[in-house]
């Protein structure tokens, strides 16, 4: 007898989870993702292409450096302070305004070469808008994505954060073929598409203008000034010789003083920008500390390697971008795999993070063996280790930072996470520049002294060649020292995992549980 009963096919749990939100909301999520990617890669592309931009705008090294400083300063302030505006004006409205500012700034920047003050103002506003977008991506993932696939959304956020640093050189090489203005224009079509998707897809929350009565004006003034002074001081520190410059001295000391006053104000204010009480959560505190260290490692690996290839091997932008692709492109495969692994309840994401830090340490130790004969091919295995290690670090950190938080804590967590991310990247760049110069000068001096009196009567042109040889070898040894220093930081953070964070589990709905 034939069984007439029909067994209903079991629906895939991932597809079922994704269908919990509408296609329109998915479009809004995609728009925020695209906006963050366009602004993040665009920022790093302009850093790699700064020399071409300075030449086209008739700016010298000193005046041209402020293009990056103003953008980065606006970025750090925007990432930390805009989340407080979301409950008041709605996430959708703020996102549309920031995308519009970025678009307009990118369109008019190439035409402002003869108006230097206005140029720096526009770059600051564009940086502010670019900094406001990453916290939005983190927040919309936490707010709208279903629990089962929320870790995949956090993985997408982590992918953009890690990818923008390494893909910037490739984007700059691509934009180069459009002329120097292409460095500002190439990502604007992406930002325009993102603006349309956000406007159509994100839900519109009601205005809550009554919050303006308690707005934290004192905190905005103190905190904004503190972050601006510290970011400018660090960004311009190497060029102006750090504390030997009265300007840098005032910026750093004054910024630290204002930061202390800002933190006191935040502790007592009913509507703070940064909820200091959240730092009592061990996992969030650990995530912020480790995030700063991981970003220093990631930025250092990019800066040290690209600096070595440029100074010793004479690599230009396109050659550097080809090498960076070995870090960025494999993450298209490794990141979703790591996200799926971390989304498994049996997997303790603390040990995924530990493995990531050990891989980063191994990459640094391998890179420390470099010689003046190394070229981009010698860094491929090191780049592949980075491509695996970076998502293994970012996804667990995001899970620990957001796990166990209330929905009302979302904007505060986004502010903390992204402000630390933006400031740590700037601090890492300043620290690497300072240490690279100091170690390079030290090794060059030792090598030059070792020549002794052998070349005392050597012709002037030969002395110049020996000086160049000492400088190049000093740069190689300094790069090796920095790789070892960064590997030590990775091992230190690995040890911190043993004592500070507690285990968390991937988010699940009640039905899924």
From TrEMBL:
Membrane topology: Multi-pass membrane protein
SUPFAM superfamilies registered for this protein in UniProt: MFS general substrate transporter
Family annotation (Gene3D superfamilies): MFS general substrate transporter like domains
Keywords: Membrane, Transmembrane, Transmembrane helix, Transport
Stored InterPro entries: MFS (IPR011701), MFS_trans_sf (IPR036259)
Protein species of origin: Providencia huaxiensis
Spans traversing the lipid bilayer: 21-41, 66-87, 94-113, 125-144, 156-178, 184-203, 215-234, 246-264, 284-304, 324-344, 351-370, 413-435, 482-500
One GO MF term: transmembrane transporter activity
Name the record gives this protein: MFS transporter
GO CC annotations on file: membrane
Pfam families: MFS_1 (PF07690)
UniProt signal peptide: none
Location(s), subcellular: Membrane
């Amino acid at each position: 007898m034939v069984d007439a009963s029909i067994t209903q096919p079991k629906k895939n749990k991932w597809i079922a989870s994704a269908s919990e939100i509408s296609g329109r909301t998915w479009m809004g999520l995609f728009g925020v993702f695209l906006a963050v990617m366009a602004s993040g890669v665009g920022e790093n592309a302009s850093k790699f292409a700064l020399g071409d931009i300075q030449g086209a705008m008739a700016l010298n090294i000193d005046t041209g450096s402020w293009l990056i400083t103003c953008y980065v300063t606006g970025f750090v302030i925007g990432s930390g302070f805009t989340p407080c505006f979301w409950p008041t004006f709605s996430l959708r409205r703020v996102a549309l305004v920031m995308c519009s500012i970025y678009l307009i700034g990118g369109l008019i920047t190439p035409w402002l070469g003869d108006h230097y003050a206005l140029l720096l103002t526009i770059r600051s506003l564009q940086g502010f808008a670019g900094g406001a977008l990453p916290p939005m991506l983190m927040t919309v993932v936490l707010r709208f994505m279903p629990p089962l696939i929320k870790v995949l959304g956090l993985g997408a956020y982590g992918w953009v954060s890690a990818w923008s640093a390494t893909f910037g050189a490739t984007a700059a090489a691509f934009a180069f073929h459009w002329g120097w203005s292409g460095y500002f224009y190439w990502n604007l079509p992406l930002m325009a598409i993102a603006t349309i998707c956000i406007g159509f897809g994100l839900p519109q929350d009601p205005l809550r203008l009554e919050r303006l009565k308690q707005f934290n004006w004192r905190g905005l003034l103190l905190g904004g000034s503190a972050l601006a002074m510290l970011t400018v001081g660090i960004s311009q520190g190497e060029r102006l010789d750090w504390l030997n410059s009265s300007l840098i001295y005032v910026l750093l000391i004054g910024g630290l003083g204002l930061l202390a006053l800002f933190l006191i104000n935040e502790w007592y204010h009913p509507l703070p920008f940064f909820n200091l009480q959240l730092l009592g959560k061990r996992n969030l505190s650990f995530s912020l500390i480790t995030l700063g260290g991981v970003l220093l490692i990631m930025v250092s690996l990019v800066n040290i390697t690209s600096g070595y290839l440029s100074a010793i091997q004479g690599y230009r932008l396109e050659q550097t971008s080809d090498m960076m692709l070995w870090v960025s492109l494999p993450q298209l495969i490794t990141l979703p795999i790591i996200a799926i692994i971390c989304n498994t309840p049996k997997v303790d994401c603390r040990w995924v993070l530990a493995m990531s830090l050990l891989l980063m340490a191994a990459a640094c130790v391998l890179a420390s063996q470099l010689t003046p004969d190394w070229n981009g091919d010698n860094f491929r295995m090191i780049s592949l280790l980075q491509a695996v290690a970076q998502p293994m670090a970012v996804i667990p950190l995001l899970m620990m930072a957001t796990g166990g938080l209330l929905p009302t804590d979302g904007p505060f967590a986004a502010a903390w996470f992204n402000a630390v991310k933006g400031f740590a990247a700037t601090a890492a760049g300043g620290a690497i520049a300072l240490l690279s110069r100091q170690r390079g000068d030290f090794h060059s001096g030792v090598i030059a002294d070792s020549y002794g009196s052998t070349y005392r009567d050597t012709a002037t042109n030969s002395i110049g060649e020996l000086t160049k040889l000492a400088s190049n070898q000093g740069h190689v040894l300094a790069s090796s020292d920095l790789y070892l220093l960064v590997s030590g930081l990775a091992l230190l953070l690995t040890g911190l995992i043993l004592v500070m964070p507690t285990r968390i589990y991937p988010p699940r709905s009640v039905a899924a549980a």
